[in-house]
Amino acid sequence: MLAASAPISLSVPDIGLTTPLLSLGRDAKGEAEVPPGEAGSPAGWYKYSPTPGERGPSVILGHVNTTTIPEGVFYRLHELKPGEQFSVSRADGSVLVFGVDRTEIFQKASFPTLAVYGNTDRAEIRLITCGGYEPSTGDFVENTVVYGHLLSSTK
């Protein structure tokens, strides 16, 4: 495990993604804040989760679409497969490589909060976006969660 250092960017070559990372807090309801929804908006790290490389699940959130175009920063997140790798660059100059363990889709109404955000005994990461667009309501009814764990780090 590594000391705390804020993440500054995420690179996921298998889905053609590179994004700077915002720092996200909590919204008015006390839930994880989401990044801006405009086209070109980056993903964001939930600052109340461990930083990538620390023990526990670091949480990075991004939109599947935008307010003006159908492809958001995490549009292709659901394509990630076990064994694929991605990296996070941190403010301390380190680059961390994570391996994908699995990708799961949950109904928002029954989202397993503890299973996704709960403590772990190693450095892990969660990449989270929405899915399951329901045209009749204009809402997304699912969340896609990619689970990963730390493979290596360089500085």
Count up the helices. Answer: 1
Low-pLDDT ranges:
none
- CATH topology type: Sortase, Chain: A
* Derived structural class: mainly beta
Mean pLDDT: 93
- H/E element sequence: EEEEEEHEE
CATH superfamily: Sortase
Termini separation comes to 14 Å
Number of domains: 1
How would a crystallographer describe the biggest sheet? 8 strands, mixed, barrel
Tell me how many strands there are: 8
Specify Rg, calculated over alpha carbons: 15 Å
Give a quick rundown of the structure:
This protein has 155 residues and is mainly beta.
What does this structure look like?
This protein is mainly beta. The protein has a single domain (7-154), classed as Sortase, Chain: A (Beta Barrel). 3% of the residues lie in helices and 46% in strands. A hairpin with a 4-residue loop joins strand 7 (123-134) and strand 8. The longest helix has 5 residues, at 113-117. The model has no long low-confidence stretch (mean pLDDT 93).
List the helices and strands and how they pair.
Elements: E1 7-12, E2 17-24, E3 43-46, E4 56-61, E5 85-90, E6 95-107, H1 113-117, E7 123-134, E8 139-154
Parallel strand pairs: 2-3, 4-7
Antiparallel strand pairs: 1-2, 1-5, 3-4, 5-6, 6-8, 7-8
